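Ticket #4471: structure export looks truncated?
Reporter: QA, pipeline team
Priority: medium

Steps to reproduce: submit the single chain below to the structure queue and open the exported record.
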Amino acid sequence: MKTLHVLTIAATMAALQPGAPAAAQAPASGAAVLLLPAGTAIELMIVREVDSDRSRPGDPVKLRVNAPVVIDGTIVIPVGAEAHGEVTDITSSSGLLKRGRLAVDITSISVGDASIPLGAMLEQEARGGKSDDFLKIALAPMWLPFSRGNSAKLKAGELLSVQVDEDVCLAREGDGFLPVPCPDAVIESAPAGV
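Actual output as written to the record:
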């Protein structure tokens, strides 16, 4: 199975998604706050295929967390947590072997009734290269004007490895964890270079 690597995700807690309950804004007094440090890897899986020939900018991209995110032996983001993205740009494949391209913004991971905002951009180009084009032209030059290039695809089941770009604090809420503003003490005690 192919794994795509996205270099950074910005998780900015000051911008919790609208609609998050007030309890998600501050931990209950005495509640333990766990730090999800910058650099923590999160593995996501594409749930529904995205294709440059069928998608349009603004179309939703469905993902899910593929491996639990664990802090100090505690699962803070479980397998199956929904992640969301949006198609931001596409180039459809067309005649004369023009290949497709698509760009996707991975926007958030849902945690309980709140979301951790993310800012990861992923660009995917269609498979193939100059050697493929040469072979098609050499074998059937009269069909070149009618030959379409390959479309760019993010296939269902593909894995994305992303990293948290900024520290995220999480507090227990019911059976799960919700993002909260980081107390100064937690930020100061965070290990450097995680």
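Status: closed, not a bug. The export was complete when the record was re-opened. Leaving a note from the reviewer for reference: The radius of gyration is 21 Å.
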